[in-house]
Amino acid sequence: MITGYVFDLDGVITDTAKFHYQAWAQLAQDRLGITITPAVNELLKGRSRMDSLHAILQFGGQEGRYTDAELTALADVKNAQYRELIETITPADLLPGIPQLLADITALGAPMAIASASFNAPAIIARLGLGDVLTQIVDPGSVAHGKPAPDLFEAAAAMIASPAATTVAFEDASAGVAAIRAAGMFAVGIGAADLLAGADLIVPDTAALTLSRVQAAFAAAHAG
Ligand code: B16
Ligand code: MG
Predict the structure, then answer these.
(1) pLDDT tens digits for 129-168?
(2) Domain ranges of the chain
(3) Model's pTM, two decimal places?
(4) What digits encode the pLDDT tens for the residues 6-43?
(5) What is 4-15+90-221's CATH superfamily?
(6) Which end of the chain, N or C, is less packed with Cβ atoms under 10 Å?
(7) Rounded to the nearest whole angstrom, what is the distance from the C-alpha of residue 184 to the centroid of ligand 2?
(8) Is the C-beta atom of 47 inside 6 A of ligand 1?
């Protein structure tokens, strides 16, 4: 029996990846003279803010050029712009299938938690109108390692007292699927199968995500 459900936020509950991309692309262009591509953005998904900045600098051949204080200032500029962009989020920005999935899990009475790398997760959850539904949100500052390490998922499962082996977790990023696997949980990957290899169940998008489909895949994996 599934004892708990853990969700990544960006790319699973709502599509903030486009806002991260917009804010990073502008920072990279204006401050670093680096033009990032959608392929680079794919690498940033699920990564912490500072890991993302390092990935962009590496892509642009500028790794090692900045002091820690300069890196922090650059990340702050990106975050300020990102915060402006997410001001536009409303409940209409929930991804297809997610309102029903959350309602079905709530009806079951099963606990849920958010394992996002984002320090902005509480603000986004509130803007989506989910403040009363998704009350358990891991503070990414409280864990030692970001995705692909298991820490965020382990902390989320601990918040809802759900053992790893019977916890189902949802991710859209390859680093996130790796983190779920490292935590020993059942991984549901949302997106392209080649990017999410290793997930126990892969669906192309959230519209294809139903509780019955997840339950059936979990039961099949544990049959026999
Ligand atoms: P912030 P997730 C991640 O969220 C994003 O996918 C990633 O692009 C971002 O860098 C990271 O959060 C940190 O976000 O700058 O808002 O603290 O996918 O783990 O929900
Ligand atoms: Mg994500």
Answers:
(1) 999 999 999 999 999 999 999 999 999 999 999 999 999 9
(2) 4-15+90-221, 17-86
(3) 0.92
(4) 999 999 999 998 999 999 999 999 999 999 998 898 88
(5) HAD superfamily/HAD-like (3.40.50.1000)
(6) C
(7) 19
(8) yes
| Fold for the domain defined by 17-86 | DNA polymerase; domain 1 (1.10.150)
8 annotated active-site: yes
15 a catalytic residue: no
Interatomic CA distance for residues 144 and 129, integer angstroms:
30
- Cβ–ligand 1 distance for 9 under 6 Å, the answer yes
State the closest ligand 1 atom to the C-alpha of 11, by its place in the atom list counted from 1: 18
Nearest to residue 153, comparing CAs of 50, 7, 1?
A: 7
Mean pLDDT, residues 184-196 taken together: 93
Ligand 2 center–CA 59 separation, angstroms: 21
The residue type at 173? A
Distance 183 CA to ligand 1 centre (A): 19
> Cβ(41)–Cβ(24) under 8 Å?
yes
